[in-house]
Design goal:
Blueprint lengths: L18 H8 L2 H9 L11 E2 L15 H12 L19 H10 L8 E2 L5 E2 L1 H7 L6 E5 L11 H14 L2 E5 L24 E6 L12 E6 L4 H4 L2 H10 L6 H13 L2 H23 L14 H12 L1 E2 L4 H4 L5
Parallel strand pairs: 1-8, 4-5, 5-6
Antiparallel strand pairs: 2-3, 6-7
Helix pairs in contact: 1-4, 2-11, 3-9
Length: about 325
């Protein structure tokens, strides 16, 4: 094929980059953290303290399970999984700020309800009812909650699903941090309450098995009445997976072996180590004495994070990376 094209000046071209994409990516954890990291002084010889890094897998104390390594190697060496994915299986990366950014671009409207900081960051159910209308289809609940560290109790989760039933909507439960609760409050899966309202649960290997770069996950539909099937929701999910990128086939193939073969000691060790490093971080931060006069030239939390990285080689994650979208 031959394409003939005359010379054009810059102002004559009809296409442009989409500004909305740039704006959406700017509010993600990755986007904000990259901006902070770019502020590091390359001539500073001190070791960078990456307190803003949410990926533990780069540290030796958080090594992945041997069964996970073996399962992937077995799948690759079998030469049976070098093909395209034949059917949609796993494709999920957690409902973090990237999901919020995507939602802002792909659906008509996203609304936000409040969390109550003085009540363990529980959902303000009154506010949730206020922002819902006839076009609302779902409520997204992240439990365990990152970054506030929330673990909702049984009664509150039940109240959430009762509110969803009252509004006639389903609950989308992001539970990629399930089984990583190391405080006094036990983790309760939202699916327990599926008889009250339909539940879509998002799960993943990423956190518990320390493999965030693999990107495998799953969506589980939980509704005893089978309404999600009858209403075409499951069919819509499958359709979405048909047009979305999949994790590598050999990673998908390894998942059953990983889930079935991981010994409990590995999972317990991950939890113990998380508790230990969290306690150390908390205790050390409590020792910090803040001189507020040093903050007079700091504009906001992002500016503080940038200056801290540049001056002290300490990287923290500003509030803006995770919560700024809720006020816009």
């Amino acid at each position: 094929m031959t394409v003939l094209m005359q010379n054009k000046t810059k102002s004559e071209w009809t296409f442009r980059g989409k500004g909305g994409l740039v704006a959406a990516s700017a509010i993600t954890v990755r986007g904000v953290l990259s901006h902070v990291m770019e502020s590091l002084d390359g001539d500073d010889g001190r070791v960078v303290l990456p307190l803003g890094q949410g990926d533990p897998s780069t540290f030796l104390c958080f090594r992945m399970a041997r069964i996970a390594e073996d399962a992937v190697v077995d799948a690759v060496r079998s030469a049976e999984f070098n093909c395209y994915t034949p059917t949609p299986t796993f494709c999920f990366r957690g409902l973090d700020t990237r999901a919020v950014s995507r939602a802002a671009l792909c659906v008509p409207k996203v609304r936000y309800f409040d969390l109550l900081p003085n009540e363990g960051w529980e959902v303000s159910l009154e506010r949730a009812e206020d922002v819902a209308d006839a076009n609302t289809i779902a409520m997204v609940i992240i439990n365990l909650g990152n970054l506030c560290g929330t673990v909702f109790n049984y009664q509150h989760l039940k109240e959430i699903t009762e509110t969803a039933r009252k509004l006639g909507i389903m609950v989308i439960a992001d539970e990629v941090y399930n089984h990583l609760a190391f405080g006094d409050m036990p983790f309760v899966p939202m699916g327990v309450f599926a008889s009250i309202a339909p539940v879509l649960t998002m799960g993943s290997l990423l956190k518990r098995w320390l493999v965030p770069s693999w990107r495998p996950g799953w969506v589980v539909t939980i509704n005893p009445s089978d309404f999600l099937n009858d209403a075409g929701v499951v069919e819509s999910i499958v359709g979405f997976l048909n047009v979305s990128p999949d994790p590598a086939t050999f990673v998908q193939t390894a998942i059953p072996q990983i889930l079935e073969g991981t010994d409990e000691e590995f999972l317990s060790k991950v939890l113990r180590t998380l508790r230990e490093v969290a306690d150390i971080c908390y205790d050390k931060i409590r020792e910090v004495k803040l001189n507020s006069s040093l903050l007079e030239d700091v504009e906001d939390d992002l500016d503080f994070s940038v200056k801290l990285a540049r001056e002290e080689s300490v990287v923290v994650l500003p509030d803006e990376a995770c919560f700024s979208y809720s006020t816009k």
